[in-house]
């Protein structure tokens, strides 16, 4: 068994520092780097790419809605053609900082990610934007989501993603961050969940329902010291169970 560990990085802006990118990059195999619309700026993008290269971490773009104030977590009404251009623009911007201008993957952020998971029209627009920028890259998306279905239909490579530190609804969507039980903060619980997800190839929802799914990558967060501890425990638990950690999907 093998699994990729990915994390959302490069979310600082100007003089404002967010996240512990240097420490996270020592633990994960893939980095989703903000492209300046929900977080990040050109200098942060360039610096984060350099850090990822130094750690031999696979580099991916993390495009979101143009919403710095709301950190890309607010839905913005846009036509499919606008979403396509929004994504293509951000993917191309990050690729400009990468040697050879080729990205390992692309993963949408926040509200755009969640919308694409449920709305096929949005999913198709996101996939079209990614494909226009780089038809060889891998599309990361919520397991069993509309985005994964769209990527398949477009003939794109894809990776089904799960979250060790987030709870799930019975329909396979993430519990909203507005709910108290949305995020799992206990490292031991998150590590145990990660191992079980991979071994069972299934996700357990908050109501107890078991949702079968192939899982290629697990997203982990690293925006504080507690989160770094969580990432380390997840990695240790996976290694202990003989699960190889690699970005080679």
From TrEMBL:
Keywords: ATP-binding, Hydrolase, Nucleotide-binding
Catalysed conversion reaction: 5-oxo-L-proline + ATP + 2 H2O = L-glutamate + ADP + phosphate + H(+)
EC number: 3.5.2.9
Pfam family, one: LamB_YcsF
Keyword ATP-binding: yes
Domain of life: Bacteria
InterPro entries found in the cross-reference section: Glyco_hydro/deAcase_b/a-brl, LamB/YcsF/PxpA-like
Gene3D superfamilies: Glycoside hydrolase/deacetylase
Record flagged with keyword ATP-binding: yes
General function of this protein: Catalyzes the cleavage of 5-oxoproline to form L-glutamate coupled to the hydrolysis of ATP to ADP and inorganic phosphate.
Family affiliation: Belongs to the LamB/PxpA family.
Subunit structure: Forms a complex composed of PxpA, PxpB and PxpC.
Matching PANTHER family: 5-OXOPROLINASE SUBUNIT A (PTHR30292:SF0), UNCHARACTERIZED PROTEIN YBGL-RELATED (PTHR30292)
NCBIfam families assigned: PRK05406.1-3, PRK05406.1-5
Protein name, per record: 5-oxoprolinase subunit A
Native source species: Fructobacillus evanidus
